């Protein structure tokens, strides 16, 4: 399949994740911070395509999340976080093919870093009330929720992307 098909699939997944994050997961009033389907989509994409493509995909997904309402933060914060998630998850591409535990660990590590970068940058720029013990609790809860969603989000996306991925990757 062509590059246009992969690009369309990715943008569709990104928009769906942003929509579900804003309309379903955000309003749930869960303790701590809500999960981020968008970071899971980026991590799943990167597990198949590698670090370079994952970083680019993360930046694009994060930038879209930065500018699409109801975004209430500085433009670029989510782009940075998702770019790091894509790069880090992509580094584990080969290990994730061989082991479910490696894939889960890569997603957990990448999402934890992305959540920490996004939340931490909010504190730095005065956009989040993350003083005291609130930041670690928010990061831990968001990562925990993301790990609960991982088996339902990451395998279907990686399977779909692998079907569309060329036989030889450029990363």
TrEMBL record:
Cellular localisation: Cell membrane
Entries under Pfam families matching the protein: MreD
GO biological process entries: regulation of cell shape
Keyword Membrane: yes
Keywords noted in UniProt: Cell membrane, Cell shape, Membrane, Transmembrane, Transmembrane helix
Regions that span the bilayer: 38-63, 75-94, 100-125
Signal peptide interval: none
Topology within the bilayer: Multi-pass membrane protein
Major localization listed first in the record, in broad terms: membrane
UniProt GO cellular component terms: plasma membrane
Lineage: superkingdom: Bacteria
Keyword check for Cytoplasm: no
Family the UniProt entry places it in: Belongs to the MreD family.
Record's protein name: Rod shape-determining protein MreD
Organism field: Acidothermus cellulolyticus (strain ATCC 43068 / DSM 8971 / 11B)
């Amino acid at each position: 399949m062509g590059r246009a098909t992969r690009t369309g699939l990715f943008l569709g997944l990104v928009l769906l994740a942003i929509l579900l994050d804003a309309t379903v997961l955000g309003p749930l009033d869960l303790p701590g911070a809500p999960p981020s389907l968008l970071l899971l989509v980026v991590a799943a994409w990167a597990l198949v395509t590698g670090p370079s493509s994952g970083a680019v995909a993360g930046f694009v997904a994060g930038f879209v999340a930065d500018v699409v309402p109801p975004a209430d933060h500085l433009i670029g914060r989510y782009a940075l976080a998702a770019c790091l998630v894509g790069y880090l998850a992509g580094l584990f591409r080969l290990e994730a093919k061989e082991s479910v535990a490696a894939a889960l660990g890569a997603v957990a590590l990448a999402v934890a870093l992305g959540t920490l970068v996004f939340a931490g940058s909010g504190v730095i720029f005065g956009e989040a009330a993350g003083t005291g013990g609130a930041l670690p609790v928010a990061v831990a809860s968001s990562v925990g929720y993301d790990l609960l969603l991982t088996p339902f989000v990451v395998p279907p996306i990686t399977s779909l992307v692998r079907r569309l991925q060329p036989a030889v990757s450029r990363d």
